[in-house]
Amino acid sequence: MYKTRRPAKMLVGLMAAAVLSTTLGACASSTSADDGEITIGLAVPNQQSPFYVAIRKWVEDEAKRENVKVLVADAKNDADDQVSQVQDFITRGVDGLIYIPAGAAAATVPVRAAKSAEIPVVTVDRNPKDAPGDTFIATDSVAAAQELGEWVVKNAGDKGNLAIIQGQLGTTPEEARDQGFKKGVEGSKIKEVARQASKAWLQDEGYQITTDLLQAHPNIDIIFGRADGLALGAAQAARNAGSKDMLVVGFDGDPSGLEAVKSGLLAATVTQQTTLMGKLAVQSTLKLIKKEQVPAEQLQKGILTTGENVDQYIANHP
User: Fold this and answer.
1) Which SUPFAM superfamilies is this protein grouped with (predicted)?
2) Residue 105: its pLDDT value, please?
């Protein structure tokens, strides 16, 4: 259906190649992407976060439908390893790169390397400020977090002591969710009394951070975990501390987060449209390979999810 482009230029001073987890959209694995079919490299921060797992699933699903090969590299939350993994994609001659940075520090390096090799880059969820992808696909986290903040004000009775469990500092989603949520609670009597950052948005981090914060600030009665994993850890820590009436909200709409909203463990979350974003990432990459125009940003609506509407997203995740 698509013609493959010429092999990517070799870059000077190749970094040590990382071992890749290789997944194919059509047939068996090969040692090089230059075998006559379109090959896309997918670089993800980890395969622990349900969000990244979902993006990978829907990228692979759409690639298979388009008869496109996908090579997957899991950075295991190591930004330096991810740089090496993307360099290996370039060496193997991938036609396009779908890239979710593992952190903020070295996020620009893979984008610049790929573009130097004339490989189009689609960034998902995170977009390096100084070296953005050719197109950026993400949830409109500012708007979604603002709506979530407004919901919290209403459901907390316009007052409370708020703790924030942050994601990785300096990353696009952390900054956007911070900006939006602040707008949402602005003008209310909700007071932020504490915040602390996680390293990888994970549930065990949410648990430990919340345990520590509740010891220092026992008056906390509202918690915003920037990801569902963080919120789930926070909710469990609050229950273990005897805070039964804690209002805890998250962000992502992961399967475990949605089930927690249904059970009442979480009061609300924002469901990200991972099915749509994964498919859109593949389609955008194919368009860029064919030199077609693609918008610089493709922001998707985040869906405020509460006990009132959660069942439909458990049954059919967008």
Assistant:
1) Periplasmic binding protein-like I
2) 80
Q: How many residues does the chain have?
A: 318
> Please, are residues 92 and 67 in contact by the beta-carbon 8 Å criterion?
no
The confidence score (pLDDT) of residue 252 equals 98
**Which position has the token pair 């602005």?**
186
* Residue pLDDT, tens place only, 4-37: 444 443 333 333 333 344 433 333 333 345 567 9
Predicted local distance difference test score (pLDDT) of residue 34:
55
Distance CA 304, CA 205 (A): 24
CA distance 204 to 202: 6
* C-beta separation of 196 from 165 below 8 A: yes
Kindly state the greatest CA–CA separation across the chain: 62
Write out the two tokens for 313: 């997203």
Q: Indicate the helix (H) or strand (E) that contains 197.
A: strand 189-197
Token pair 């990978």 is found at: 56
Closest by Cα among 47, 61, 51, 55 to 256: 51
Residue 289, pLDDT > 90, answer: yes
Give the list of residues 6+ apart from residue 52 with CB closer than 8 angstroms, or none: 44, 45, 46, 100
Scanning the chain, the segments in alpha helix (DSSP H) are 50-65, 79-91, 108-116, 141-155, 172-185, 203-216, 228-240, 255-263, 274-289, 310-315
Mean pLDDT of 52-56: 97
Mean of the per-residue pLDDT values of the chain: 91
Q: Would you state the torsion angle of the CA atoms of residues 126, 174, 268, 235, taken in this order, to the nearest 10 degrees?
A: 120
Rounded to the nearest angstrom, the gap between the alpha carbon of residue 285 and the centroid of all alpha carbons in its chain is 18
